[in-house]
Structures are given as C-alpha cells and as structure tokens.
Amino acid sequence: MKKVLIVEDEEILRSLLQKRLREEGYEADVARDGIEGLEKIKQVKPDIVLLDIIMPNMGGFEMMEEMQKDKSFSGVPVVVVSNSGQPVEIDRAQRLGACDWLVKTEFDPQEVVDKVIKQIGKPKDNNI
C-alpha cells in the first residue's frame, strides 16, 4: 500500500486530508510540525510528503533542508500545501526539492488526491 505523510499544524485540514486519502486507499500518517514530520519519515518511510510551510517548532522549509541532508529521504516527493502562493516562496520550495505546490484557500481535497496520484500513482499501483 502506498504511504502518504501529511505534515500540517491545522488539525481540521490534517484530518480532512487524512480521511480523503484513506478513502482513496492510501495509508495516510500525520505529523503536526517539521520535527514530528522528520521522525515520522524515518518510521513510516512514505512514498510522498504533503508539507505545510508555516508551522510551530520547525516549518516546512526547515524540514526540507533537513531532508536534503539525509540521503535516505532523497527521492521522496514533497508537495507543499501552504496559505501562500508567493513566487519567492514557491521558488525556494522548488530549490529545496518540492515537486508541486497547492494554496490552501484555493484547492479542494480531490485536487490533493490528484497531485498524489500524479506523483506516486494510485494506491493499488504496486509494482511488486
């Protein structure tokens, strides 16, 4: 089963995304900030990370910087889910390895599912 890690400090959004991804057949784990996100990456070894930028303790940019330092995280796609769609932030996220970007106020949960499918395929597409 394909695994998605949602790193998001807003509980409503975190729960909504987790529920929607599970309905689609993905295994969806959650973390409340970048520190917890890094711990969860090591534990669950997700196929993709949905990452907020502004969070307490450690934000998304810092988490991506840490992921770049650890080779075991390389190759894990990151889709940024943020309140901001500022070009400077999108550019920084792309430089840190983000493969896609969603603005929270402008998407519905299906759009997130579509981006996950685009990056890692449908949950049943196991090549095993």
Commentary on this structure:
The protein is of the alpha/beta class and 128 residues long. The protein has a single domain, classed as Rossmann fold (3-Layer(aba) Sandwich). The chain contains five helices and five strands. A five-stranded parallel sheet has the order 2-1-3-4-5, sandwiched between helices. Strand 4 (78-82), helix 4 (87-95) and strand 5 form a beta-alpha-beta unit. It is globular, with a radius of gyration of 13 Å. The model has no long low-confidence stretch (mean pLDDT 92).
Mean pLDDT, rounded to whole units?
92
Distance between the termini: 10 Å
**Are there runs of 5+ residues with pLDDT below 50, and where?**
none
- Specify the structural class: alpha/beta
Basic shape: globular
The CATH topology:
Rossmann fold
Reading the helices and strands in chain order gives EHEHEHEHEH
In terms of DSSP E residues, the strand content is 15-25%
What is shown here, in short?
44% of the residues lie in helices and 20% in strands.
Give the topology.
Layout: E1 3-7, H1 11-24, E2 27-31, H2 34-44, E3 48-51, H3 60-69, E4 78-82, H4 87-95, E5 98-103, H5 109-120
Q: What features would you highlight for this structure?
A:
5 strands, 128 residues, globular, alpha/beta
